[in-house]
Amino acid sequence: MSQNALETGTAEADVDVDSHQDSDVMVEVRDLRTYYEGDGLFGGTPVKAVDGVSFDIKRGETLGLVGESGCGKSTLGRTLIQLESATGGEIRFDGTDITMLSGTDLKEWRRNAQMVFQDPDSSLNDRMTIGEIVREPLDVHDWKTPRERRQHVKELLDTVGLQREHYYRYPHQFSGGQRQRIGIARTLTLEPEFIVLDEPVSALDVSVQAEVINLLEDLQEEFGLTYLFIAHDLSVVRHICDRVAVMYLGNIMEIGPTEELFSNPANPYTHSLLSAIPEPDPTAHKDRITLQGTPPSPRFPPSGCPFSTRCPARIRPPEYQDLDNELWHQLDTLREVLRERDRTEKSVTDRIRELLGKEPHFGTIDEIYAELFGDQAVPPAVEDVLDDAAELARGGNERAALDLLGAEFGSVCEGHEPDGAAEADDADAEEPVEPDYHVVSPSGRRSLCHRHDSDADYRKPEHVLDDRHR
Ligand code: ADP
C-alpha cells in the first residue's frame, strides 16, 4: 500500500478528495462519458457504457474499480488510456487533457500509460519469441539501439521474475502465471507511470494469483507506479487497493479509502455488493442485502438514480411508508417484471419475431397478479391502482400501466438524479463541474444516494424496505 493511502485520512482531505489543487493528483477525470453508438435496429440509441464519472487518481496509489459485469469498468479503463475515445468530458494527466491529443502527441503520451489484460493467452502472440513480444513497444518507438533494446528486455525479464534465457522461448512454453509476467514485462518496457490492470489475476489459478499480486505490488514500489485495478474479486481489491470506486451502470456510486468503504459502506449498492462476499466465519453477524433482478441495459438506463430499479433501500412515497414490507416488495417485483417485458420487446430477437409476424410469448397480466398477490392482503387504495394498471395492460398498453405504477409507487429515487444536476448548469463555475455527491466521511469518501439528503441511515430497520433481505 502506498504512502499516499496512509495519509488519506488527514484533515485536508476533509474538504474534497478530488480537490483540483491537490499536487499529488496524477489523473483528473471530469464528467467522462464513453458511449458506443447504436446501429440500425435500435435507431441509433447508444450504449452508455460510462455515463458521466468524475474522480482523481493520486500519484503512486492503487485505485480499485469494482462492480457487476457490464457496468463499464473495462470501458472506463480503456478510455483512460485512450484505447477508446471519450464521447464527452475530460481526462487530464498532469494537467494535459489527453482526450484532445492526436497523432504524434498521442503516440508520445501513450508511453506513459499502459494496460495489463485479463487473459495472458490471447494478449501474447504465439508466433513471436518472448524477447520479440516484450521488445515490440521499444521497436515501435524506435528506442535506442537494437543491442540496448535486447539488454533492456533481458533486465525486465529479471525484474518480473523470469530468466534472461527465456528471451528466445515461445509463449506456449510457459504457464499462465509466467505468461502474465511476460505481459507485465511488456507493459513496463516504455517505463510508464500509470497502468490499468484489467482483471490481471482472474484467469490464473488461485495458487499463482498471490504471486502475481505480490509482483505488482513490488513493481509499484520499485518504479513508483500508479494503478487503476479493475477486479470483481473483492478480497483481492481489499488487499491491494488504497481507494476503491464502486461502479453501477456507467456511474460511480461510491468512492473512498478501501478499509473504510469495506467496513462501513455508505451506499446501498456498495452494501449489496459487499454483502455477497462469503463470510469466513459463518456465525459472524452480517447485514445481507440480496439484489433483485438484473442491471438495466446501459442503452436504456432508468431515470433518476441509476440504481433505483433494484435498490432495496429505495425511498417510499410518504403515503406508503407503513405498507407491509412483503407487499411493497411484490409491487417492486411487478414493476420489474413489466420493465423487463418492456425491455425484452426492444430486443433483437423480438424485433425479428415481429418482422416474421410472430408475437412474443408472455404470460398475461392476470397470471402475473395471481403469482405476486394471490396470497397477499392488499389494501383498497393499492388495489385500485393495481386494477387500473391491469386494465391498461389487458388493453395492450403495458407501457401506460408501467407509467401509472411509477407515478403511484415511484419516488424521488426514480424521479431525480441524486443531487447536483442543478449545479451542472452553473456556467459561472470556475472549477470543472462535478456531480454533487454527498461526502460521507472525514476522509472525503463520496456516495451517490438520495438517502444521504436526510441524515437517515438507510440500514435502520425502518428504512430497509424488504426485511427478508437483511
Ligand atoms: P465491465 O468491464 O464492467 O464488464 P464493459 O466496459 O466491458 O463492462 O461494458 C460496459 C457496457 O458496454 C456493456 O453493456 C457492454 O455490452 C458494452 N460494450 C462494451 N464494449 C462495447 C463495444 N465495443 N460496442 C458496443 N458495446 C460495448
UniProtKB/TrEMBL annotation:
One example GO MF annotation: ATP hydrolysis activity
Limits of the ABC transporter domain: 27-274
UniProt keyword list: ATP-binding, Nucleotide-binding, Transport
A Pfam cross-reference name: ABC_tran
Region of interest (Disordered), residue spans: 413-470
TM regions (residue ranges): none
Record's protein name: Peptide ABC transporter ATPase
Species: Natrialba asiatica (strain ATCC 700177 / DSM 12278 / JCM 9576 / FERM P-10747 / NBRC 102637 / 172P1)
